[in-house]
Design goal:
alpha/beta; seven-stranded mixed beta sheet; 20 strands; globular
């Protein structure tokens, strides 16, 4: 049966058809939907779960593989950084049943704090990496990845990108493969990586790479398209192949690499010998180009194409042919739409209070990162998951005189992901640092996935919920309190009280995300234009439901959820 599917949906379908029994992931855009779709197959033998973080997700998947069940873990590119510890060693141990990881890169940083090329992790871990170029290949490559994993005794990476994960294509669905579990046999030398066992394993990994390179020469994953009237040849992979085909059609010949690590040698040399001029078209790092130069070729690559951001059909056409694309000019400029915290966001009152207090705010990854934008503009740093706590601790240790005006900020899901150990560090080293835990009862930025803090699992079924107050106290934080963040006066009062402390402390601001289907809202507020003086004080909270028209505040009834923050700020009682 043919169906139009997102790339991520096609990956999930491939996992189902490949007979996978376990999927364990942490949500991360643009990879999140893979695991969400997998949850639909619960009654058909595919178990899915949200893990606290990507490292745990891969370790759980490895455990299932060790037990003889095909397993998978999905993540975004920075998630692979977290998961790299078990991955690099799993490359040495090999697998029992197939073990496949999908990593979604984000060229252009649509929802990420950096750009990185995950092919470098495949090279570093010395594991094969497949890169599909559309939804059809997402499904096919996923199934093939498990065969490769078991044939070559290795974890396998599938590299996606934002455009592949979130674009749609026609796929043909098949039946689920019945896989007999591999028997589990105790094998200490294979799976216990102490130095005496790991040293000979390195030799095995290098031999496996040699065999995989031979496989790459004739693998159906790598395809050659020779066009008789071609003016040049392009070696490419993934979404860059689609851009190249749309830009040049039959005027170029193509070597599309579906297996991007390890790369073939003879296949590339043979293709290069058949074309007049050779281009390497790849987003981000020059991985294919470097390989080509290593084997003695002299292609045109990053000297012509950028290693920053995404490519496009027009960009490639302009760089190779010199022809400028035709643009249609519009008479009116499109207004800028910067991202903002949603109307009724449970974080807004906290950040407004912080902006009034003028403290240093060590931020983290999540919706609340948007508090860095005007008019709140309160974030001082954001680097990675869990960094909000650790950076605040380091800042206070570096500048003790800032202890009473520094806070670390982190959401509930991020705290579970990698903040707990950072908070232990603060307690253990007796850091005079205040941490704000913004508990909005969901994993908000990636689309409202459940987490161990909100009492529901991936199937929306009841699960044990982490008691954040009890957890903080159990690790040595004696001053902990929970506050609703929709009372600005109360929020500001508690912040002042806790900033004055001379010991580690945590304030838990607990209130459900306004966009949750279970959140109940008040009617929209109304603004009395006769009472409104146009002072614009209400605009300081950055609520998208508020605007100024004819020098008076206007409420957008479609957006307003009646949170009442604006009425708390107004000195003239204009809002009701």
């Amino acid at each position: 049966m043919k169906e139009l599917l997102l790339g991520n949906h096609a990956i999930a379908t491939g996992l189902y058809e490949a007979g996978v029994e376990l999927v364990s992931s942490y949500p991360g855009t643009p990879s999140t939907e893979i695991t969400m779709y997998c949850a639909n197959f619960k009654d058909e033998g595919l178990y899915a779960e949200w893990s606290p973080n990507e490292k745990v997700g891969v370790e759980v998947a490895f455990g299932a593989s060790l037990a003889g069940a095909r397993a998978f873990s999905g993540m975004k590119h920075v998630g692979l950084n977290v998961a790299s510890d078990p991955l690099y060693t799993a490359s040495y141990t090999g697998v029992n049943a197939g073990l496949v990881l999908a990593v979604a890169d984000d060229p252009g940083m649509h929802s990420s704090q950096n750009e990185q090329d995950s092919r470098n992790h495949a090279i570093g871990a010395k594991v094969p990496m497949l890169e599909p170029s559309d939804s059809k290949e997402c499904l096919e490559f996923t199934k093939l990845a498990f065969d490769i994993s078991e044939e070559f005794d290795t974890p396998v990476l599938i590299r996606l990108s934002t455009r592949i994960s979130h674009s749609q294509g026609i796929v043909e669905k098949g039946e689920r493969k019945v896989i007999n579990k591999e028997p589990y046999k105790k094998d200490i030398q294979k799976y216990v990586m102490m130095p005496a066992h790991a040293r000979p394993k390195h030799n095995m990994v290098e031999e496996r790479t040699r065999k995989l390179t031979e496989y790459a020469e004739t693998s159906p994953l790598n395809t050659v398209e020779i066009n008789e009237n071609a003016e040049f040849g392009i070696i490419t992979s993934g979404i860059a192949y689609q851009y190249s085909k749309e830009a040049f059609g039959d005027s170029a010949s193509y070597l599309k690499l579906g297996l991007v690590n390890p790369l073939p040698v003879k296949l590339i040399k043979d293709f290069a010998a058949k074309v007049k001029k050779l281009y390497i078209v790849e987003e981000l790092d020059p991985v294919i180009e470097t390989h080509c130069r290593f084997i003695g070729l002299d292609p045109i690559g990053k000297s012509l194409f950028t290693n920053i951001g995404e490519f496009s059909q027009n960009y490639l056409r302009e760089r190779i042919t010199g022809k400028q694309p035709e643009y249609k000019e519009f008479s009116e400029a499109v207004p800028v739409r910067p991202p903002v915290l949603c109307a009724g966001c449970s974080h807004r009152g906290v950040f407004y209070a912080l902006s009034k207090l003028g403290v240093v705010v060590s931020g983290d990854i999540g919706c609340y990162t948007l508090a860095a934008t005007p008019p709140l503009s309160v974030m001082d740093s954001v680097i990675c998951m869990g960094g909000g706590i650790s950076v605040a601790h380091g800042f206070v240790k570096g500048r003790p005189d800032y202890a009473d005006k520094t806070v670390g900020v982190m959401g509930d899901s991020t705290f579970i992901h990698s903040g707990i150990t950072s908070l232990i560090d603060i307690a253990y080293n007796r850091s005079n640092t205040l941490i704000l835990l913004l508990d909005n009862r969901t994993t908000g930025m990636t689309g409202h996935q459940n987490n161990p803090g909100n009492g529901l699992d991936i199937y929306d079924e009841p699960a044990p919920a982490v008691d954040f107050e009890a957890l903080c106290k159990s690790i040595g934080i004696n001053r902990v309190t929970t506050v609703r963040p929709d009372n600005i006066e109360r929020v500001e009062s508690v912040l002042k009280e806790y900033l004055a402390l001379t010991e580690p402390a945590v304030i838990i601001f607990k209130m459900p995300c306004a966009l949750l289907k279970t959140s109940k809202h008040n009617p929209p507020v109304k603004c009395d234009t006769e009472k409104c003086t146009g002072c614009r004080l209400c605009m300081r909270i950055g609520c998208p439901a508020l605007s100024i028209k004819n020098k008076r505040a206007v409420v957008n009834n479609t957006l307003c959820v009646g949170c009442g923050l604006c009425s708390q700020l107004c000195k003239f009682n204009a809002f009701s």
